[in-house]
Amino acid sequence: MRKLASAVVGFAALALFTPASPARAEVRGAYLEARNTDLYGGRCTGAAQGDGRDAIIAWQIESGDFGGVPLAGLSAVAVIRGEEALSAAPGGTSRPHSVIFVDATASLPQRAALEALVRAQTGQVLGEVMRVEAVPIELAVDPSRALGRLHVAGLAELRTRPFNRLDALCGDETLAAPPLAQGVDATPAVALEHAYHGDALGAPWDAVNGRGAFVGTFGR
After folding, report:
1. I need a labelling partner for 27 at 20 to 30 A (CA). Which of 74, 114, 153, 170 fits?
2. Which of 183, 208, 209, 204 is nearest to 30 (CA)?
3. Is the pLDDT of residue 30 over 70?
4. pLDDT in tens, 112-123
């Protein structure tokens, strides 16, 4: 019974990270993020693994426009690598490098608007953008269940699941850092797979079963 109570407390501790945001947003949608470090943990999960230098962020626009350009039904992805752990409030001297993927089905104005949205959402976290590519993006996100799947053929993969009773949770878990993007309402999740196979950011990476994912929504 005591274990069950601890598990219930652990699940309740998965509180949404909900920053203050405007009442109206020009563009809204689903949000998916993973970093190569364990951001959510406590005494039962053990020491955090990973250096937090690598991240993949994906946006699935459900409604609205950005800069007057309609974006509903489109997606965008940012892949970021830093020389040190990435932070939503960068304070180091090093500058991250990144690539942006925009939906291949978007028109030229929409591709430009998607790129602008990614830059606005991430700010300094994005660092120097090495490349912007229009590619087919497969993205499915269910914020209510902390489930997400991103597939950018030959370039990026990201799959998440919610924490559950099989995870080593004691009820004292805390979140080490918020999501990297602005205007996000998200819950921590497990990154079943988090991989980048491109050549624009140095060595590729492929991580599994990390506690550094977020699944939720965004509005701007």
Report:
1. 153
2. 183
3. yes
4. 999 999 999 999
Going from the C-alpha of 197 to that of each of 136, 148, 203, 213, the distances in angstroms are 15, 19, 8, 19
Which alpha helices (DSSP H) does the chain contain, by range? 2-12, 108-122
Domains of the chain, residue spans: 2-219
On whether the CB atoms of residues 196 and 34 are closer than 8 A, the answer is no
Enumerate the β-bridge partners of residue 54. Answer: 81
- For 138-183, the pLDDT digits (tens) are 999 999 999 999 999 999 999 999 998 888 777 777 788 899 999 9
Beta strands in the chain (DSSP E): 27-35, 40-41, 54-66, 69-70, 75-81, 97-103, 128-135, 138-142, 147-152, 156-161, 174-175, 184-196, 205-219
Q: Is 123 helix (H, G, I), strand (E, B) or coil?
A: helix
Q: Is the pLDDT of residue 11 over 60?
A: no
Residue 208: the pLDDT is: 94
Distance CA 109, CA 177 (A): 34
Exposed, middle or buried by CB within 10 Å (0-12, 13-18, 19+), for 210? buried
Give me 62's structure tokens.
């459900």
Distance CA 191, CA 177 (A): 16
Name the residue among 103, 161, 93, 184 with its Cα closest to residue 136: 103
SS3 at position 193: strand
DSSP lists the bridge partners of residue 128 as: 97
